[in-house]
Amino acid sequence: MPLAAELSGVAFGYRPGQPVLENVDLGLGEGEFVAVAGPNGGGKTTLVRVLLGLERPSSGKALLFGEPAHRFSGRRTLGYLAQRSQLGADAPATVREVVSAGRLASGGLIGPLRRRDRELVAEAIERVGLQAVADAPLRTLSGGMQQRAFIAKALAGEPSLLVLDEPTTGVDAESQESLAGLLDRLHRELGVTVVYVSHEFGAVERFVQRLVLVRRTIVFDGSPRELPGVWHDPSHVHARD
């Protein structure tokens, strides 16, 4: 299987002598649906930032579709949903305007969207089930619906890799289940590689093909069904980075 992303012998630290990641080896196949979890300070968000080329490893290599991640030529094909606190959900913009920004980021457009861009925006909104509120201000929607809007924004850019960092923070249990089902459907229909990063992976556990647990290095990589019992203890997994 061709690899969408690869980390080989990766180490990283924000301060000298204080490693956040050590000896990380990870390959994500194109079209996989993978969950990344781990304890507080375990490095899961840092791992994703290195994987996306947002941070450069102090040693080892990080590749995206075979290219060095920090200078990946297809960056416009990456869909990255940062943690909710960074998403600007209170911005005075409608759902359609937020999703349209995904086309601007993808094509570097200036001025009105072209017909094909508008079609892709409408298609993305439909895929996440927000047609009825497409022209409503984003800030008037529930947390779960806001997350759907940001997923639609990423989809409008026709991503080859979709990374979601803590997408269910502040979202109720019912919305978490709904979001997980949406991601499963998008993964099956579009074949996009999905990386789901969270301190809670229960909502997606039955959908993901692999679960990667990070505690400075990779301590587990396999089917959620094979997960050692100790990691089902909330004190080990359900803690934020």
Structure, explained:
The protein is of the alpha/beta class and 241 residues long. It has one domain (3-237): Rossmann fold. The protein contains 6 helices and 10 strands. A hairpin with a 1-residue loop joins strand 9 (210-215) and strand 10 (217-222). The radius of gyration is 18 Å and the shape is globular. The two termini are 30 Å apart. Mean pLDDT is 86; it is low at 230-241.
Largest sheet: 6 strands, mixed
Going by CATH, the architecture would be 3-Layer(aba) Sandwich
Helix percentage: 25-40%
CATH class descriptor: Alpha Beta
Tertiary shape: globular
Estimate nothing, just give the exact number of structural domains: 1
Average pLDDT for all residues? 86
Tell me the name of the CATH homologous superfamily: P-loop containing nucleotide triphosphate hydrolases
Distance between the termini: 30 Å
Q: What is this entry, summarized?
A:
29% of the residues lie in helices and 27% in strands.
